[in-house]
Amino acid sequence: MKTRSQNFWSNAPRYVVLTALAVLFVLPFYLIVRNALMTDAQITAPGWIWLPPSPHWENFRALFDDHDNQMRTGLINSAVIAVVTLVFQTLFSSMAGYALARIPARGSGFVFGLVLATLMIPGAVTFVPAFAVMAYLGGVNTQWGVIAPGLFSAFSIFLFRQFYLRFPAEIEEAGRLDGLGYFGVYWHLLLPNSTSIMTALGVLTFIGSWNSFLWPLVIGQDPSSWTVQVVLSTFLTAQTMHLAQLFAAVAVAVLPLIVVFLVMQRSIVEGATFSGGKE
Question: Where is the signal peptide (predicted)?
Fold first, then answer.
């Protein structure tokens, strides 16, 4: 039987690797916070400064006081788009998944095949047609133009269908004996028991929507419709680059994601499990 000391030394290589990976993971966050609290001169100084000698918290105030950037607008737009996409994509995907899993209709298998086929099409292929449709419908420079294409997720529909296929049929039959139809069974029985997968996919949807860049950049051509990711890109393309403000903006932009990760990390792990088909 191995002693505690022997176990420690036998696991030492694993600890070293995990520590190195943890440092690599934390390093970008350290650089963001460090540079956000320094001046431009300190950031570009030849000598490395590990921590700001005196934190410049005013960089954050200057970020929001500077009317040349649209940080406040970007945060509001991103929050609205991410929350609306989260709610409606999750709801629509669960309804579609339930219909494909539980309602015996002619052609449902063919429809499910079409849904899966969309997973095989690269997003770049549908980018221009989607923009043409949104432009025709008047969705350019609008929040709904950014949101609409994200309301359909073949991947979420597939996961919800697999989840509902494993749902106990006895509960569904009991609901039918009480006079519930398909929608009643879904709304009163299946939906309340789907909180685990809905929370997991909802968190992943929120993170994906918040980090989305290319589609909001193309649709939101007016500064009033920019998301926070688009606003961050303007710091890099500006004629005069304020590094301290840039890193302060990055710190503000990632803060909601860090909060979501800390609060919902268990759901994120469950989402990764669902995504890997291990549930």
Answer: none
Residue 241 lies in a domain: yes
**% residues pLDDT > 90 (the chain):** 41
Asked whether the beta carbons of 92 and 156 are under 8 A apart, the reply is no
Please state the φ and ψ torsions of residue 274, each to the nearest 5 degrees.
-60, -45
pLDDT over 70 percentage in the chain: 95
For residue range 257-267, list pLDDT tens digits in order: 989 888 887 77
Q: Could you say which of 55, 76, 95 is where a domain stops?
A: 55
Locate all alpha helices (DSSP H) within 152-223, ordered by sequence: 154-165, 169-177, 182-185, 195-211, 214-219
Give the CATH number, domain containing residue 233.
1.10.3720.10
pLDDT at 273: 66
Residue 212 CB contacts under 8 Å (≥ 6 apart), including other chains: 146, 150, 227, 229
- 182 and 85 share one domain: yes
DSSP assignment letter at 223: G
Beta carbons of 227 and 81 less than 8 angstroms apart: yes
Residue 112 lies in a domain: yes
